[in-house]
Amino acid sequence: MGVGAVGLAGCIGDSEPEQIDDGNESSEGTLRMRTATSTTAAYAGNQGIAAAVNENTDTIFVEAQTSPGTEANIGALQSGEAEMVYIQNWSAADVLEGVEPFNNLDFTMNQVFHYYDLPWFFCTADEGLESLANIESDTTISPTPRGSGTASALEHALEYAAEDYERVSQTYGEQASAMNEDRLDIGVGTALNFEIIPGWLQEMMGTVDLRILEVPNDVVEAWENDDRLIAESFPGSVVENAAFAPEEVWSIAFSYNFVSRNDLDYDAVYEFLNVLYENRDGLAEYHALLSQLEDESFWVRSPYENIPFHPAAADFYEEIGIWSEEFERGEG
């Protein structure tokens, strides 16, 4: 299954509207949106989305909420604890394939809009490691922490590069100290939308001489031929503070899109998209992550195959001229 793959809090008044029901009746209410944990750019950016919408409409109220991750987000749709959540392409494929714990969902997942792209690359502080081809059975690797939404995909990607390695688990902020203490040979880094370096990676590069690993051509080819993976490259100059970066950095990318239940209120979704779109030129003032939404084509970038768009989103995108006949329109 392929794809194609500084925050402000929302203004909360003295009383909040009723929660949006699951029917098709037009109603005022709350759109609870879940992303990730409170320290992430994903959550901070979502706070910006909430503020931008809440400051410009009284019809709906957007509440940005934290979440442990994409698996929990899908569970929140199932339980009715959230109206809109973000997931990534690997989880979307698991939903389509009915992989546990997504094998008993009582709704059809619908796409709403594209949030961001997150490419993950492998890196090290060991000058003796230049490429994924250098991995040996005793090489310690943390392909994101165990249990993260990206771990399974990166573990799968490593299968093409190494027969065996020692799987360890370090949080993003712990990677540098683990490398300094010889507890971690290879970790990971990322660049939001292929251009924004997160704070934890900046701190990491200030702590160790971080070197981005090269990826052998045969591994790149295998990644590209795997329908479950999105192999993308970007210029090494993006990671300008790295001790070494190849001219072309190869990564496993994830497409993060907001999704909802198919029965989420039509008018609420339409109003949300319309207000956000009308105020897109100022979204970067809330968080740099939202700057890409100024480009209307970004809203439908990297859609998930075989997952339809919410009917309100389909109609809205058709009206502003960015709908493609390759997309699928869902049913409420």
Automatic annotation (TrEMBL):
> Any idea which UniProt keywords this protein has?
Plasmid
Keyword DNA-binding: yes or no? Answer: no
Where do the record's region annotations for Disordered lie? Answer: 9-30
Q: Does the keyword Transcription regulation apply?
A: no
Q: What InterPro entries does the record point to?
A: TRAP_TAXI (IPR011852)
Q: List all Acidic residues biased stretches.
A: 15-25
A Pfam family cross-referenced in the UniProt record is NMT1_3
Span of the secretion signal? Answer: none
Which PANTHER family has this protein been placed in?
SLL1037 PROTEIN
Please give the name of this protein: TRAP-type transport system periplasmic protein 2
Give the species this sequence originates from: Halalkalicoccus jeotgali (strain DSM 18796 / CECT 7217 / JCM 14584 / KCTC 4019 / B3)
Lineage, highest ranks first: Archaea, Methanobacteriati, Methanobacteriota, Stenosarchaea group, Halobacteria
